[in-house]
Write a structure and sequence with these properties.
The structure is a single chain. With 329 residues, this protein is of the alpha/beta class. The chain is 38% helix and 17% strand. It has one domain: 3-Layer(aba) Sandwich (Rossmann fold), CATH 3.40.50.1820. It is built from 13 helices and 8 strands. The chain has an 8-stranded mixed sheet, sandwiched between helices. The N terminus is likely disordered.
């Protein structure tokens, strides 16, 4: 039982941290993997002297293409644009998409309003630079994983004009819920992280990239104490619920929300599967085209396992969903 709990916890944390940040997890062999497509790096905005960057991956040729705005996971406290896996870049580029993978400021050094503002700025930059980037501004889709899935759903609320499609892998639409604002049983089973360690786990200056055991420990602390929402947003769910509602996509769905696909494992012990169910139900009530792909028995970060035929089928469904709305070559 203890071994299975430990494995479940490490699986959760590895998926949250991302491949680049999973320093506490066993490395996976990458031999025989085709090379990553080349990228050009841009500074899409500068805030108080801090450059915030995007990697742009183009398919071969000079044609104008649809684009994917890709948002990394990491609980909004860790991760980076480089966390996009090679096979994922290859898949989109081979289908004729330009991929824009971005960094954004991370909490707790920055707060949720600043993070959301970075994502909005990246989208506006893509549209304003559409000619130079050789992308069609009318065919931009947003794809995110975990916290990136949350930000992708936020895009459906705040971006205007709306993106053409959204795909959220094991994302969430409610940051006011007890699942994030109360102590979590899975993380309470792990060694206690003391509040006295917080100063050593965080910095004072804004950052756009973070990985490694320190940030993992910070996340464990937040889940053990039930303070993720407060630490990341700078707002207290008990006192500032009205202000936080604007950052809950499930509470802000309108008929203008883009067509959306949600993918979620039913055995996810980090982001509850019911988060995607609730998001699906809100979209359906608003008359928005929506599909929920449930993966029975799968946990958080299920798409890390490329050997599972159910996972591959789900990824293909997500690709077909994007293709049907963005019309690549």
């Amino acid at each position: 039982m203890l071994a299975s709990r430990a494995a479940r916890f490490l699986g959760n944390l590895g998926a949250i941290v991302g491949l680049a940040g999973a320093a506490c997890l066993p490395a996976r062999a990458q031999s025989g993997t085709p090379p990553r497509p080349p990228a050009r790096t841009y500074v899409y905005r500068t805030v108080n002297g801090l450059p915030i960057e995007a990697d742009v991956y183009h398919p071969p040729g000079d044609s104008v293409t649809p684009a994917i705005l890709w948002l990394h996971g990491g609980a909004l406290i860790m991760g980076m644009r480089h966390d996009m896996r090679t096979w994922e870049v290859q898949r989109y580029v081979a289908r004729g998409y330009t991929v824009v993978a971005i960094d954004y400021r991370l909490a707790p050094e920055s707060k949720l309003p600043q993070i959301a503002d970075d994502v909005e700025a990246a989208y506006k930059w893509m549209r304003s630079q559409a000619h130079a980037l050789r992308i069609d501004p009318r065919r931009i889709g947003v794809v995110g994983h975990s916290a990136g899935g949350y930000l992708a759903l936020m895009c459906g609320v705040v971006l205007r004009p709306a993106p053409a499609a959204i795909v959220a892998y094991y994302g969430y639409g409610d940051i006011l819920g007890e699942w994030y604002s109360k102590p979590d049983s899975v993380y309470l089973e792990q060694p206690h992280v003391s509040a006295s360690r917080l100063d050593s786990l965080t910095g004072r200056s804004p950052i756009t990239q973070a990985s490694g055991p320190a940030r993992g420990s910070l996340y464990v602390y937040m889940r053990q104490q039930g303070v993720w929402t407060r630490v990341v947003s700078g707002l207290d769910p008990q006192v500032d619920a009205a202000a936080l509602r604007r950052y809950c996509p499930v509470l802000n769905v309108t008929g203008h929300f883009p067509p959306t696909m949600l993918l979620h494992g039913t055995a996810d012990t980090d982001v509850p599967y019911k988060q995607s169910v609730a998001m699906r139900d809100a979209l359906v009530r608003a008359g928005v085209t929506c599909e929920l792909v449930a993966l029975p028995g799968k946990g958080h970060g299920f798409d890390l396992d490329q050997r599972d035929p159910d996972v591959l089928d789900a990824i293909e469904r997500a690709q077909a969903f994007l293709d049907s709305r963005l019309h690549p070559r």
